[in-house]
Amino acid sequence: MKLNVCAVLMVGAATLGGSVQAADIEAGKVKAATCAGCHGPAGISSNPMWPNLAGQQPGYLVKQLQAFRDGTRSDPMMTPMASPLTDEDIANLAAYYTNL
Q: Which pTM value belongs to this model?
């Protein structure tokens, strides 16, 4: 698996308001097992109802997951999935999907 250092640093900065924290791609992969049912095991959804996550920009993924978690964006399936995520979980998921 290739490591996109720039993406990892951007995720850390987006998550912590400017301070840089390296996200853990492997931890993101483990956490993404829950996402695979809808978004596919490699981040490519087989159902047009659910977006592909593989290759998305890290800032976009962080913003959307935080919005679902914090209630500024609501979806009957995503809101409950995102609500228990920590900032670290979100950074790790974003790093994983960005690097697919």
A: 0.79
